[in-house]
Each structure stands twice: as structure tokens, then as C-alpha cells.
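Exercise: predict the structure of this protein bound to iron/sulfur cluster.
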Amino acid sequence: MIPKTLTLDDFKHTTDPDWCPGCGDFAVLNALKHALVKLDRPPHQVQVVSGIGCSSNLPGFIRSYGFHSIHGRSLPIAMGIKLANPELTVVAAGGDGDGYGIGCGHWIHSCRRNVDFTYIIMDNQIYGLTTGQTSPTSFLDFATKSTPGGNKEAPLNPVGLALMAGAPFVARGFSGEVKHLASLIEAAISHPGFAMVDIFSPCVTYNKVNTYPYFKGRVKKLEEEGHDTKDFKAALAAAQSWSDERIPIGVLYDRPRTTYDSTDPGVQQGPLVGRDLSMDSQQGEEFLKELA
Ligand SMILES: Cc1ncc(C[n+]2csc(CCOP(=O)(O)OP(=O)(O)O)c2C)c(N)n1
Ligand code: SF4
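Solution:
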């Protein structure tokens, strides 16, 4: 039989996205599908996991395995799935509130733990689903529903923090550059280890500051500047660069290192999905005794 070539239609879900017209998340979904087609990963080998938010609704709009979990908790679930079934391509997806706010601890520890999965963050610098409150990446002085007098907290730097926390792959993309974004997601999935892609994905309804035109005039592709993705200091410099003239996008850092998956003794005994986890009656009785 001639092997089937995947197309975008293979990932088309029966449910269409209900995002606001123009939301940046459409481009992210599109780019993810393009990357999976390019990498020839069929839907039954792909697991998408999310938290809660407009962006976190993404698993409901792509034909693959999906897990729409709870706010800020997509990463431990993604990790568990990958460790239990390494054959799956695991992609966690969500927003800046989900990942950098309530889920911040999981994110930082994912960077250092280095389990082999991809994390894409639709960073719109606002809480979209809950109708427009400040997020950890909202600009200083940004007036929102939760900070009508202007945001008094300095935004965090997601790519800089990820680098310092030990993430072996860090990239930044923009929903207004779908082809480029697809290439970043493709590189992230291909990377053997934890790979993070922070994406400027404008919320056209609640963020009137970080808009498509705002980014369009500022983003500059690192690969066009001869950036060395193996150079940690150059990656940090790119992470710290944000001005009216230049906000770098592209792969900031890509340097594989030993993964948790390849060293954890439990995982080395073979994938959990392939093991016989049943108990015979004697084991069952002993187990019940332990609980008594
Ligand atoms: C434990 C918990 N706290 C708060 C909420 C309310 N809540 C739902 S989504 C969200 C933030 C959404 O923002 P973000 O993650 O940036 O996603 P977006 O909607 O912008 O895509 C919040 C605070 C919740 N669902 N669960
Ligand atoms: S509220 Fe914002 S983030 Fe949510 S779907 Fe609409 S444009 Fe997208």
C-alpha cells in the first residue's frame, strides 16, 4: 500500500474555532497544523494538552488526541503523558495568564526538567477569556478592567526567564507571520527535549495596545541577522532586546541536552502504556492490607 501523505484536512476538526474574528490564535492553530503536516505526524500520534483560556480551547479545534485540563496545569499533564507514552508527539498550548501566571511554577520547572515535549504560548498580554484583565506580560501602565488606573507591575520576560531556567529550546513568533511561525513550531517539535515557543498572538477585542500593527513594524527575524542559536549569551541578548525599532523573533536558542526521559530509572523500565499493570488477587489483598 502506498503510504498516505498528510494534508491540513487530516487535522481539521468537526468543530470550528469560536475565537473572535481576527484573533491571533487562528494563525497559531494554522501554523501548528502546517508543522505537523511537514513533520508527517498523523493525528493519532499527536496529543495536544491545554489549560483554560481562549487560547486553551485550541485542542477542541484540531483533530488529534486532546486534553483540555484546568487553569495553569497543562504542563504536568503533558509531561505525564509523554513519560507514559513516549511515542506520542506532545504539544501543550495555552495563554500567558495560564502559563506565566497561575502555571508559572510548572513552566519554570519544565524548563529545567527537560521532558521531551513542545509548549506553545499564545501571548496576547491580557486575559482574554475573562474579558480583559492584566496578565504577567501586560505592559506597565496598561489600563485594563483589573487595573483601570494603569498596571503598576512590571511585565515578566518569558523568553529570558525560560533561558535562565534551563530551557534547551526557546523561540518567539508572531501570528502575523504564519509561515515563519510554522517553521518555529516545526523546529520546536523536532527538538529532542522541552521546547518553548512564545507567540505574539493579538487579542483584537481586549488589547488595543499590542496589536498587529504594533508588532508588524517592530518584529525582526533573528535568522536574517546571522544569529547563532547555540550561543547562550546571544540568546539572552535577543531576549532582552525590545524597542520601537526591534523586537527579535525566531529561534533564540537551540541546544539539546540530556532529557529527563532518557535518564529517569522508572521510564527506563519501558513505557507505562506497554506494561502489564494488572494485579493478581494476592497482590490485591496485600495492597488492601497496606491501606487498612
Ligand atoms: C483556578 C482558576 N482561576 C481562575 C480562573 C479564571 N480564568 C479562566 S481563563 C483565565 C485567564 C485567561 O488568560 P490567558 O491564559 O492569557 O488566555 P487567553 O484567554 O488570553 O487566551 C482566568 C483567570 C479559572 N478558570 N480557574
Ligand atoms: S477575547 Fe481575545 S483572545 Fe479571546 S478569542 Fe477574542 S480576540 Fe481571541
